[in-house]
Design goal:
Blueprint: E1 12-14, E2 20-22, E3 33-36, E4 42-47, E5 51-56, E6 81-88, E7 91-99, E8 102-107, E9 111-115, E10 119-124, E11 130-132, E12 141-143, E13 173-179, E14 182-189, E15 196-200, E16 205-210, E17 216-218, E18 240-241, E19 252-255, E20 261-263, E21 275-280, E22 283-289
Parallel strand pairs: 11-12
Antiparallel strand pairs: 1-2, 3-4, 4-5, 6-7, 7-8, 9-10, 10-11, 13-14, 14-15, 15-16, 16-17, 18-19, 19-20, 21-22
Amino acid sequence: AGIDDNATSVAITISSAEDVTFTEDILLGDSKKAIFGAGSDFEILHNSVTGNLFNLAANPLEIHQVGTNSVLQLYRDPGNGVIAQFYGGTTEAGSIATDTSLLKINAVSALSFSTNNGSEAMRIDSSGNVGIGTSSPAHTLDVNSSASIPVRIHSTASANMAVELDSANGYNSNIEFKINDVSKWYVGAEASTNAFRFYNSTGSSESMRITSGGNVLVGDTSVTDASTGAKVYSKTGFGIITNNNENAGGVRLVSSAQNSVLVHSDPNNERADSFIAFNVDASQAMIINDSLNVG
């Protein structure tokens, strides 16, 4: 039974170890099954309604290869197109396809990677956002971790290392610092001036900047020459230059070629009543007037 009576040769060989070898194609009629296992553990069938079916009973399908060859190979002819589809019930979850030498994994909604027997570790959502430690990534790369150092970038190159932040032309490039998801500070490059600035997000104001010329400004955004009486905090050639809205200027500390330090009031000799005062707890401790008298 089960062998074509009109066959010119027998297509089945049974060895002494009861291995069965088929030397011809096996043809099953619609709704006829090839059943493996006493409990119908694995069934292969075809019917006119659902097409080709592989039915598993209680146990999963196991393919065991002894040797170094591939365990499973899937081919498509022609070579481009869907090679396998995956369903949850009757709902398609995704597919695997080939495009020349490219393997394409297509998820209908999201692609999830799990470890520890099902604990999700990473997800790529339908917008292309990648979440590590989160199933709802809000950014292109969203990392959520309980570790004190969640991200480490290490280079083994025999060269100086850099992390690049590249904004579009005309836009600032910043790093934002938050506490409990509340923005506190921005630091980064200003596109219009090439200055490096420290921006207080809480007060919505700039706190400090380093200009492209190397000047350091605290509480101000522009620098001009000290001789003009402008508000200058640091200028190339001096350590610190400050004033208190006075045309004569305030105090500057200078390191010269002889490694001396100069405390200079009225550097451009613009006032006749210049002095240097040293105060402690709002009380004057010492004063040097423009005649070099010390009191």
